[in-house]
Design goal:
alpha+beta; seven-stranded antiparallel beta sheet; four-stranded antiparallel beta sheet; 10 helices; about 30% strand; globular
Amino acid sequence: MNYEEFCAALQEELFNMLDTGYSIHREHVLKNNGVVLDSLALLKAGKHCSPVISLEMLYEQFEKGHSMSELCDYMVSITDTELPLSVAGLTSLNHFEDFRDRITCRLVAQDKNEELLKTIPWIPCLDLAVIFSLVIESEGETQISSVITNVVSASWNLTPEDLFSLAAENTPRIYPANFRRLETVIEEYFPGSIDFVPEDCPVPTLYVLTNSSAHHGAACVLYPDKLKDLADAFGKDLLILPSSIHEVLIIADSEAFTERDYHVFCNTIQNVNRESILPEDFLSDHLYRYRRETDRMEIYADNSEALL
């Protein structure tokens, strides 16, 4: 059974097993970097929202031996799960004061999100875009949020600059920054792994900057004074390697670094982007430098640097 045949069969199976209290919708959801999620949503009568479940993920499970009936039962169980109170009560976005403390920011690539950026408020940041999301639930492993659209921001009568001002206060509070040595992070997730730094890497110590949820943590570079405080602690400028939308690597800059060293950093970024991350998690191929003197982040590229 090919993919399209599977999708049709799954919808038919759901239609036959469910009563009229459910509606079934196949949706194409535009995600980060132009990635489109082919999904199925079951909306139960009386509920205002429902989980969106990837059809491609379900098809992978089907190919691994899970029956159509098992997949349908899984979808129904997800749909029937009681939503957090903050989600269950989310029927309208008309009252801005109810949501102002939940507005946060994310960093995404500009050039890979041209279509998305037409529909949402955003602010340019070098080759990146600062976009905004509404945190609906953030408790433990439960992370539910929604990107703020032009329609929503217009209903609130807020400009992108207004949203950024609110997000600059809310995001560090909701998602505190997490700064640790890279080997500590690797050891936590992959115990016993030590060969994670390229042999020609010119520095022995790299650091990971992300947030407490490790989700959209690259936005930590936007936190007020975060890069300044780190640079002051090192007593040096910072090199910033964007490993994904979820985290960046930080290296203390050094006068001892040669052009070849910077070339290694640039190659490392590109190799990780091509070989180790999902397309929707890509952030940038560029190496960045934070300068203490100017309190600015810059793009490093072939001795020419574009100021933020």
